Amino acid sequence: MKPQLAVLADSANLSQEGKLNILGEFNVLYAEGAPVTHPVLWFVAKMELGAADFGHHTTLLRVVDENGDTTMPPLTGEVDFPQPPNYAGDFLYWPVLLLVYNATFPDFGKYIFELRIDDQIVAEVPVYITRLPQGPNVAPGVGEA
Question: I need a surface site. Which of 3, 92, 103, 126 has the fewest CB within 10 A?
Answer without folding.
Answer: 126
